[in-house]
Amino acid sequence: MMEQVTRAMVEQKEFEEIAFAVVSATWDVKSIQGRLASDLGFFDLAKEDEISVRASRLRHRLKNGKKILVILDDVWCKIPLEDVGIDFGDSRGCKILMTSREKKVCEDNKCLPFVIEVLSKEEARVLFKQHAGNRIEDEGINPVAMDVLKECGGLPLIIRAVGEALRDRELPEWEDALQQFTNFTPQNIVNLDDQVYMTLELSFNKLKPEAKSCLLLCSLFPEDAEISIDLLSPLAMAMGFLCSMDSIKNARDRVFSLVNSLKTSCLLLGCEDGDKVKLHDVIRDVAIYIASEDVDHRFMVKPPISVWPAKYEARRAISLRIEKLDDELPGKLVYLPSLEGLDINLWYFLRVALDMNNS
């Protein structure tokens, strides 16, 4: 949504410059500074390593007299704006726009909250029909389809995903979907509404095996990452998720096709680079949970841990994210007989010693 706002502001020329940064749950000051500086063409900031000096230089750049809009997307907590270097002071015409799942987060950041309401009943019906197809108007299907639509709670992301999952399906499949909503058992996923999980899980379950595996593999990448098809293809092939593939080229063609179908299903987002895709953060949350529980995948995406729990022995793929200098990794990996993929992503230079006693 914020990317659309950015494009609209550029077209309307409301501001002379626009700087955009996705904050996310695992944010750090330096990365926010870097993203804002990049959008402002302030590339010299990368030469400076000290955060306080970077903040001072960024602050000076933002106060150069131009009308600047700073967009901070997906904010989860109070952000020390002064530490980042965002302090317009008396700068006229300069604004900060934040988005968050929680109204309180906006209030904690001293922003004027503007709640984006869910779609009206008619707006939701029109959007649902666009994605589910004209068959929802059939006399037998319509009552069930409208009950399914109610379960989407007026949320566009959910309406699109569920609509595509049930597009042109027969009545028994619609009734089965509604039954899944009725029998839903809440999942304890932090910061994720049960209704959102329930509706997205339905979309996941309607995917064919290869498409589902491709989507779950995307959850191993960092939040807001632009995922290259050239990287995703050999990973899917190596994990055995592509049937009868005898070359990287064939694997890439298959993954390209799967990615396009997932974009059509509104489960993946396109990027400016047509060979890359992104996961919406809410869909990624659901994908991580499903991949951790699904017997055919058994993935784990975790922040750093100092002790490796024995329950991880069955994992096929593990992704660890190192965000801060004092983050820890286990001293050694326990016996992991099923492990096929290990990704340790280092955001900063760390001296890490891992005793790989895996045989």
UniProtKB/TrEMBL annotation:
Keywords: ATP-binding, Leucine-rich repeat, Nucleotide-binding, Plant defense, Repeat. GO terms for biological process: defense response. The keyword Glycoprotein does not apply. One of its GO terms (molecular function) is ADP binding. InterPro entries: Apaf_helical, NB-ARC, P-loop_NTPase, Plant_NBS-LRR, WH-like_DNA-bd_sf. Signal peptide: none annotated. Residues 3-134 form the NB-ARC domain. The keyword Repeat applies. Belongs to the disease resistance NB-LRR family. This is NB-ARC domain-containing protein.
